Amino acid sequence: MIQIENIQVGYGHCVVAEFAGDIAFAKARLIALIGTNGSGKSTFLRAVASGEHIINGKVSINNQKWQNIAPRDRSKLISIVLTERAFSQFLTVRELLELSRAPYTNYIGKLAAMDHEIIDEVLEKFDLHKLHDRKAGTLSDGQLQRVLIARAIVQDTDYILMDEPTSHLDINHKADLLLQLKEYCHEHDKTILFATHEIQLALSLCDEVVSIHKGSIAHHTTAKFHDSKLLQQIFPSKNLSFKNGTIGFDF
């Protein structure tokens, strides 16, 4: 279980973001992270993923403070998909996925048969098998987004954090992807926390919701989030209406 308690993120004594509240993530959940632009969703994900730049508060996993866990062990517990795409454009799709098995390889980095089986399974599940030998630089934005998500899943961590995973995808692929991720979480006892602006889609498919609003974080089941009226507080607008998790437009 990941536990987060009143964290402040910054450099030295300079606080750049703070998230007041105590929340915990259990396994086998697909969780949406929502908030307005600039609310700190990406900062929150980075802090939880690495434990770095936390100057107050605590992030722990399995009752261990995150900073006290060795980097190699961290990489077996949590993975992250960011909006930045820092990797060689000349690597093939399969080579990108192979890099994610590094925490489990021996000292010379040799992949075992099980590593290849995991990669093949994920390529098939996310319909990437036909792209396995394509160079990353030749992929469309949507294809590359799916590959980066697959790379995190190949890392086989209990918790996966994603920043806008449905960006660059059209509406049917957004829904398909979130359904695949939900199925993956439930089948493999994993938890995915993802930041999103696709609020209505997320509320239709996710098990739980974490919201960031005016420096406070809250964690609800999706049903209880609907009842909480937080959507109206986070996104106040005379042009929007909220009812039973549905967003309407009043103009």
UniProtKB/TrEMBL annotation:
Cite the Pfam families for this sequence. ABC_tran
Q: What is its EC number?
A: 3.6.3.34
Enzyme class at the top of the EC tree:
hydrolase
State whether keyword Nucleotide-binding applies. yes
Alphabetic keyword roster: ATP-binding, Cell membrane, Hydrolase, Ion transport, Iron, Iron transport, Membrane, Nucleotide-binding, Transport
Q: Where is the ABC transporter domain?
A: 2-239
One MF term in the entry's GO annotations: ATP binding
- InterPro entries per the record? AAA+_ATPase, ABC_transporter-like_ATP-bd, P-loop_NTPase, Siderophore_ABC-ATPase
Q: Where in the cell is it found?
A: Cell membrane
Q: Keyword Transferase: yes or no?
A: no
Output the GO biological process annotations, alphabetical, semicolon-separated: iron ion transport
Q: In terms of one coarse class, where is the protein primarily found?
A: membrane
Cellular component aspect of the GO annotation: plasma membrane
Kindly give the membrane topology term recorded for this protein: Peripheral membrane protein
Protein name, as recorded: Putative iron (III) ABC transporter ATP-binding protein
What is the species listed in this Swiss-Prot or TrEMBL entry? Nonlabens dokdonensis (strain DSM 17205 / KCTC 12402 / DSW-6) (Donghaeana dokdonensis)
